[in-house]
Design goal:
By secondary structure, the protein is mostly helical. Among the domains are: 35 residues; 42 residues, no CATH class. It has 4 helices and 2 strands; from the N terminus they run αααββα. Strands 1-2 form a two-stranded antiparallel sheet. β1 and β2 form a beta hairpin. The longest helix is centred in the N-terminal third of the chain and has 36 residues. The protein is elongated and about 100 Å long. It starts with 5 loop residues before the first helix and ends in a 13-residue tail after the last helix.
């Protein structure tokens, strides 16, 4: 530890100033570092700007599907009513029988499907495959 002077001990605090030389050197070194960093970043950006067109190949095929203009956010005016309407649509899909003759798809309510599954059990896969070996 550094030696303390008698005046500092009697006063209860440091009575002399910090040496100005080392503080000035640190300040100058920090200023030089900031300036060098700034110049280096400017040079880096100029180099990247020069090489950018040379490195670009043909654009990705999905670039044509990119949305260039963004729409404004769509706000829900009556959130509870929208939520209730969505719940009604979901409940109708989960709890009703439907038949799509064109697609050949019939749906049954989830509760009935669970009862049938409990009655009949899961289907057993037969055939050759990695799992059956």
């Amino acid at each position: 530890m550094a030696e303390q002077s008698t005046a500092s001990i009697e006063a209860g605090h440091e009575v002399s100033d910090a040496p100005a030389g080392p503080l000035a050197k640190i300040g100058i070194a920090m200023a030089v570092l900031v300036i060098v960093s700034f110049v280096g970043i400017v040079v880096l950006f100029k180099v990247l700007q020069y090489y950018q067109p040379l490195l670009q190949g043909e654009p990705h095929p999905l670039t044509a599907t990119r949305v260039e203009t963004m729409s404004e956010p769509l706000l829900e005016i009556d959130t509870p009513r929208v939520r209730l309407a969505q719940k009604a649509v979901e409940d109708a899909a989960l709890n009703n029988y439907t038949l799509d003759a064109e697609a050949g798809i019939a749906t049954i309510p989830v509760d009935r499907a669970m009862d049938l599954l409990a009655e009949r059990g899961l289907p057993v896969k037969t055939g050759t495959g990695a799992a059956s070996q």
